[in-house]
Amino acid sequence: MIGIIGSGGWGTALAKVCAEKGHPVQIWALEPEVVAEINQQHTNNTFLPGVELPLSLHASNSIEEVVSGKKYLFTAVPSQWVRSVAKQMAAYLNPEAIIISVSKGLDPESLKTLTAVLTEALPMVDPNAILALSGPNHAEEVARRIPSATVVATPVLKFAEEVQDLLISDVFRVYTNPDRIGVQLGGALKNIIALAAGISDGLGFGDNTKAALVTRGLAEMSRLGVALGAQSPTFAGLSGMGDLFVTASSKHSRNAWAGRELGKGRSLADIVGSTKMIVEGVSTTKAAYKIAKQVQVEMPITFIIHQILFEDLSPHEGVSHLMERMKTHEMEEVVFGTYSWK
């Protein structure tokens, strides 16, 4: 059986993918009304409106019920809650379970990737059996069976291929990658650049501006990733360039929407208070800023977004600061890594 920890849009969409492949699936939801709706109406209009869910998909408020006896567990809660939820899971976990982290962010306290957090919180599980899943995957489209592709990452190929077989279908293509750090950093850091792209739109700028932000944003994502042990080619793949493209440009993107509202003059507090959805780019900006300072990696777009979010810099001033930076070469030192499986 499969357990999905988290009933947000992405957790619900993945539960639907698994159920449609014939797997028994339970999903854990914090909200009693979400549990009741999934079980009785077979919808989750709070987080994934307009999608009919399979009758075989069941929800529960009990972590114990959803975790106990499961071979595969997907963690799909916001990044700031991963550690506390994992500690609740630990008491009921099958040590042979395979854990798939599908949240996109960094732990705000330790600044670690979410698979690192899960490894610490779930010491009874083989660390290589804790995978990351990421890619250009809007829940709204995956749930509607719009053709999509994703990446599962762990250093050990047998675990990656097992999860690949679990999920792959005629409309959901799954690739494998041993670069677990890079796949997670791509999924987390792209939200910062999506905020910047949204701000550009909100200010009324054009395609040229957004293209420049996305391209230079990808460069600084890769730069930080390599400094933290990732392989730079990962950032040219689905979990890097692919996810950045879709998050910076899509109507479904919460981070691009939040950026647009900032560009139009709304306050951050007003924006995040107006939605039940988590704008992961906000906490990720704070974490990435601290990490970049620690490892001495230059991330000009991330630093400007940090100033806009937390230091009262206006979006217009932020753009001016970026444009007035010291002139430089486009192609900085690039480190090309090689992949290897254990």
Describe the fold and architecture.
- With 342 residues, this protein is an alpha/beta fold.
- Helix content is 49%, strand content 11%.
- An 8-stranded mixed β-sheet has the order 3-2-1-4-5-6-7-8, sandwiched between helices.
- β5, α5 and β6 form a beta-alpha-beta unit.
- α13 crosses α14 and α14 packs antiparallel against α15.
- The radius of gyration is 19 Å and the shape is globular.
Compact overview of the structure:
The chain is an alpha/beta fold and 342 residues long.
Shape: globular
* Helix percentage range: 40-55%
| Annotation, overall tally of beta strands | 8
How far apart lie the N and C ends? 27 Å
Major beta sheet, strand line-up: 3-2-1-4-5-6-7-8
Specify Rg, calculated over alpha carbons: 19 Å
Number of helices: 15
